[in-house]
Each structure stands twice: as C-alpha cells, then as structure tokens.
Amino acid sequence: MAGAAFPLWLSIRVALVSTLFVAAIGIPAGYLLAGKNFRGKEVLDAALTMPLVLPPTVAGYFLIVIFGRFGLLGQYIYSICGFNIMFTWYAAALASFVVAFPLMIRTARAAVESVDLKFVNASRLLGHGELATALKVVLPLARKSILAGVILSFARGIGEFGATLMLAGNIPGKTQTMPLAIYTAAAGGDWKSAEYMVILFTLLSGVALYAANKLTRKSA
Amino acid sequence: MKGISVNLFKKVHGFTLDVGWQSAEGITVIFGHSGSGKSTTLDMIAGFQLPDSGAITVNDKKLFESASGLNIPVKKRGLGYVSQDPALFPHMSVRQNIAYGHPKLDKASLKRTTDEMLHVFGVEKLEHSRPAQISGGQKKRVALARALIGQPAALLLDEPFSGLDHPSRAGFGKLLIEIREKFGIPVLMVTHNAAEAMELAGKVIVYSNGKIEIAGEPREVFAALSGQTAHRPPTLGSLSRSTHRRSS
C-alpha cells in the first residue's frame, strides 16, 4: 500500500515535532504549576488544558483566528517574514501541539506533585537551589510518569484530525496525515486502503498506550 | 559562641508554641510527648516553618529575627538535618547521596571528601548500593554522612533512633557522641525516649504542650520529672541563669 507511506511518514514527523515542543514547554509548565503558588494559577491551568475538553474543530477555529493569514498573530508573522502557516505541515504540527499539550501539562504536574516533599526539603537543606533540586531530584524521581506523558502526547498528536483539517487542510502529498488519509479513503469507498491504515494506526497507538501504562505502573 | 539559641512563638490550629532556650555543650535534647512542639521547633530552626515572632541564632549567626524581618532561606542556613525518615534519594547510590550534600566542592575534592565520609561512617562497602538495598541503620549512617559532608553549622536530629533495633540503637548512640566530638558542632536532638536522652544529652529541654516544662542536666531533669526531688521544677528564667552559669 504505497499510498499510505506519505501519510504515515508525515504523521510521524508531525507528531515527533509537536511532541518535542510539547515536552520542552509542557514539562517546565507542569513543574511550575505543581510547585509554585501564584495568583491565577488555577485559571492558567484551566486555560492551558482547555483543548483537552474542547472539540478539536473549536481548537482549530481558534488557531485560524490566531495564526490565519489575517489572524491576531498571523498577520504580523506574514508582514514580517511573508510566511503563512495555513495549509502547511507546520500547521499540522501546531494543531497536534495544541491538542497534545494539555495531556503533557496534566501528566507533568501530577508527576511532580507525586514526588515526596521530604526529598525536596532534603535537597534545599543540603544547600541546593530550585533549579538543581528540579534537575537532580524532582525530575529524575518523576521521570517515568513524565515519560508516560510524553508517549501519551505523541499518541494524541499523531491521531489529531479536526484541528489539523481546519488549519492544515487535507492536501495529498503535502498536509494529508494518516487520520486524514483514512477519512479520505473511507469517504471515497477505498475500504481496502482505509482498513490497512486503520490496522497500522491501531497497532501504533496500542504500542504507545502499552508503553505508557507500563511506565506509569513502574513509577507508582 | 558555638550553640543554638531560640525564642519562638507560633500559633497554629489551636496549638501554641512558646519557648526560649539556649543549647549547651555536648548534645542538647528536646524531650517530650508527641504533639508537644519538638519537631515544629526543629522545622523552624531548619527554616521549613516560620515562627509568628521570635529569633533563631546558630553559632552567633542570626537565621531568623521577626523584629528586623530577617529570614535566611533554607538552602543558606547551612544546617545538617536528619529526620525520622532519612529521606535518601532513591535514584542515587550511597556515594551519590553523600556527595550531593556538598554542592560547592570541585570534582576531585568532592571525591576525596566523599571517600572520607564513607570511611568515617563505615559504609564504604555500600557505596554503589541504592537506598532500597541497605538496612535502616545503614540508611541513618548515610543520611548523617550526607548531612555532615558540607560541614554544617549545627546538626539537627529528629527522632534519629526510630526504626532501629536494639543493637543498632546502641551503636548509633555511640556514633552520635563520636560525631559530636569529631565535628565539634552543636547537636540538637528531638526524642520522646528518656533512656536516649539520659545517655546522650548534655542538656535536656522538656516540652509539654508547646511550653518548656523543665530544662537542665539530664539527671536533674529526670529526677524532677519522676518526683524524686522535692524542689519545684525550675522556671525558664532560673534555667537560663543556671545554663549561663554552667557555660561561663
């Protein structure tokens, strides 16, 4: 099934890029939400995790409003560098990022909160600052749960459909990820291709969930 | 002057802690029942809890003073603290745990100092073990080594004998006396075990309901507590005067 090769490759590429950013921003954000008390903390948490409960098409709509050619930020990006993210694979990565980010932030926050305060206190008493305590004590102790969060974010990102369709479109050979290709194949009556891609995708998601569960159990 | 001096007042959830004392030569023991404010005192000296008012001084260095708003952060207090649970980092080996206690040393000096601490505390053979692989007594030794490697200004011990069996307790008591002599720093220990207090203390401060009931040399204190002496338990004022006389 040569037709599945590009969507599969694009989906993996999109999910890898989005997961990279999700981890790089989501882990520190989850850490801050877990360890710091500040005004508006729960409001910020709710805003950051909103895409978890919003329909992906609503998330996609917001993304168009923000990053579209005439969007709140998009117009400035276009006027500065002449780049419009709409209907590019970057848009698919951005859509994946937005829907996967809440999972990462929730998992990272819970993982950091689960680290016993006695270890944090011991580190501080031994003369270590916040950064050293975070890097050498808290994150290593929370690593398995955080890694499970990274895997779950990857799985969520690779399966993204609604927001991707709205922001990146469904252009074969350019922005058509695997979920979009499955939709196109099924809608066009090409059940054999759809079935092949569904099996492939189910296996991929199953492996990711198995790995995440195993890591979570080990860290408990 | 080497020693710990505190004046602490704190009200929390209907409990009031209102104490003032100075440590003496040797090991100072805070003795009392659970909930009398012993561990809260240690937490305040370490900086984990803030008094409502008062002052904390260790070796003439002020760590906290409500009047001037001084409050040295936990990481800069330079105190060693070993709690009931040694809180060894489970992802680090024994050697890594001890070395973590001295964040400011360069690599070569840290290795040399860690080797020395492993030897002093008799845990050289366990250096590559993880905390989960060693006994309760060994954990306490490692926790002590980790607390002392950075040459703290004072050592705080919260029920250090808890979880140890009888033979380990005897060995650990001896180790605490050796530590006090070798490192020459004030040692403040919290316990609710009278035998430990009698054996180790240079001075015993008895807490009851957040107040000092009596303080002084262990023999006098426990005699007074068991009603063997006829005299009235001394007041805090007379105690600080007698402590002053003894230390001068």
CATH architecture of the domain at 1-78 and 186-248 in chain B: 3-Layer(aba) Sandwich
Strand order, main sheet of chain B: write it out.
Answer: 7-8-9-3-10-11
CATH class identity of the domain at 1-78 and 186-248 in chain B: Alpha Beta
Q: What is the averaged pLDDT score of chain A?
A: 91
What is the C-alpha radius of gyration of chain A, as a whole number of Å? 19 Å
Q: Which residues of chain B sit in consecutive blocks of at least 5 with pLDDT less than 50?
A: 229-248
The description of the largest β-sheet of chain B is: 6 strands, mixed
Counting DSSP H or I runs of 4 or more residues, the number of helices of chain A is: 10
Q: What is the CATH superfamily of the domain at 1-78 and 186-248 in chain B?
A: P-loop containing nucleotide triphosphate hydrolases
- State mean pLDDT of chain B (0 to 100 scale): 87
Q: How many strand segments of chain B?
A: 11
Task: State the total count of DSSP E strands of chain A.
Answer: 0
Corresponding CATH architecture of chain A: Orthogonal Bundle
The total tally of domains of chain A equals: 1
What do these coordinates show?
The complex is a heterodimer of chains A (220) and B (248). Chain A has ten helices and no strands. Chain A has a single domain, classed as MetI-like (MetI-like fold, Orthogonal Bundle). Chain A is mainly α. Chain A is 77% helix and 0% strand. Chain A starts with a helix and ends with a helix. With 248 residues, chain B is α/β, with parallel strands linked by helices. In chain B, strand 10 (201-208) and strand 11 form a beta hairpin. The A-B interface holds A 116, 118-119, 121-129, 132, 136-137, 140-141 and B 46, 48, 74-81, 83, 85, 87, 89-91, 100-104, 146-147, 150.
